[in-house]
């Protein structure tokens, strides 16, 4: 006689739940049926245990479009090397960031939206607050028609300081916008208009929220900038742009040893809750295909205010792309490779548009061995199949959107 899994006693489900270590397994548990879902949701001790971990591994979202025009996103757990039996009904568009479990996108009217992918699980009823609409930014004064057609690329990168539902009063959205990589921010629930950082602090490549400040890195010189969002922003008139200039240059950039022909992308990563790392990613075009050819890692010396190159990450593993960059302790998660950087094909200013049929700059870089393992290159498939599953590799080859690393939060169950 077949067992009705929905009728298992609650104490047995609690016992199973307490043995789960991976966040993805926690989500999978909650999706078995409604009785399992409520046990997972009501297990405060297990949720608190995982919430206290500052090293929660990201899941990789991979877009998939069907001939019927249905857009869903698959969820790939790199640590366990499997595509989860879970589909997310999220718009098929480019996202300029992911942070605190939320995706960030720009709309045609130059407004931004925050989308919670785990509130939009296929087969479940969508939650009302799965999408949060923000006020529009001031439209560009030049090339307006071009940017209206190409609006999803106007926001180069974005992040948030806190969960917009759990900590709405502390949530600030910061965006790097084209064409000069300028900064703007908006305090959720407090501002009806965006505040724009002085244009002298432009050409930014990345921005993160760490240690109660926003940090951004200048893509031209590599200077590290920092600023606090004030509790009140003065403006002269309601029609005039609010401009903010209280920005500190924390550290100068890193001088290149030689003139490089590559395009260099810079990412900032917080590790151990107190350290800042900068990743320099060298991108080139080989046979009209984008490929990452070199990666360097630097650690900030807060006392001397300088970047120092490091040749090992130790037990750390980093995940970079269009997302808020993530650091995890590999030893905490079976299947995670220490001393490695997991990198996605993301938005840049040379190849511009993502084309899944031609561009597939995905892979893993071992920092200590200085060795790349690429996804999508036939000569590397035998090596890389041990890291990304065949199913995930197939999805990455077929996707027409850049995948996104997302670290879910626990109220998203």
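^ Assign residues to that structure.
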């Amino acid at each position: 006689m077949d067992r009705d899994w929905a009728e298992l006693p609650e104490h047995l489900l609690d016992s199973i739940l307490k043995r789960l270590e991976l966040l993805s397994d926690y989500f999978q548990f909650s999706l078995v049926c409604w009785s399992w879902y409520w046990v997972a949701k009501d297990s405060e001790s297990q949720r608190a245990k995982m919430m206290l971990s500052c090293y929660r591994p990201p899941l990789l979202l991979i877009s998939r479009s069907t001939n019927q025009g249905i857009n869903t996103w698959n969820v790939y757990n790199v640590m366990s090397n499997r595509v989860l039996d879970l589909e997310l009904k999220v718009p098929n568009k480019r996202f300029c960031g992911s942070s605190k479990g939320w995706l960030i996108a720009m709309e045609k009217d130059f407004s931004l939206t925050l989308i919670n992918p785990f509130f939009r699980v296929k087969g479940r009823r969508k939650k009302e607050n799965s999408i949060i609409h923000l006020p529009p930014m001031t439209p560009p004064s030049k090339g307006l028609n071009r940017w209206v057609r190409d609006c999803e690329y106007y926001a180069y990168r974005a992040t948030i300081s806190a969960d917009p539902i759990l900590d709405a009063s502390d949530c600030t959205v910061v965006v790097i916008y084209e064409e000069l990589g300028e900064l703007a921010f908006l305090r959720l629930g407090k501002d009806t208009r965006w505040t724009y950082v002085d244009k002298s602090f432009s050409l930014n490549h990345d921005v993160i929220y760490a240690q109660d400040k926003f940090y951004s890195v200048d893509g031209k010189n590599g200077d590290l900038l920092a600023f606090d969002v004030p509790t009140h922003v003065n403006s002269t008139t309601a029609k005039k742009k609010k401009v903010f200039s209280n920005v500190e240059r924390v550290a100068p950039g890193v001088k290149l040893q030689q003139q490089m022909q590559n395009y260099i992308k810079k990412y900032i990563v917080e590790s151990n809750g107190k350290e800042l790392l900068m990743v320099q990613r060298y991108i080139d075009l080989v046979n009209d295909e984008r490929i990452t050819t070199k990666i360097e890692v630097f650690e900030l010396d807060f006392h001397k205010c300088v970047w120092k190159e490091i040749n090992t990450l130790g037990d750390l593993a980093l995940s970079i792309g269009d997302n808020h960059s993530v650091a995890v302790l590999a030893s905490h998660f079976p299947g995670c490779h220490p001393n490695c950087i997991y990198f996605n094909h993301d938005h840049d200013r040379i190849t511009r548009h993502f084309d899944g049929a031609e561009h597939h700059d995905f892979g893993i870089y071992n920092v200590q061995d200085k060795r790349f393992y690429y996804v999508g290159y036939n000569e590397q498939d035998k090596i890389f199949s041990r890291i990304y599953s065949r199913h995930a590799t197939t999805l990455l080859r077929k996707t027409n959107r850049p995948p996104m690393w997302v670290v879910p939060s626990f109220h998203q169950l």
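Confidence is low (pLDDT under 50) at residues 378-385.
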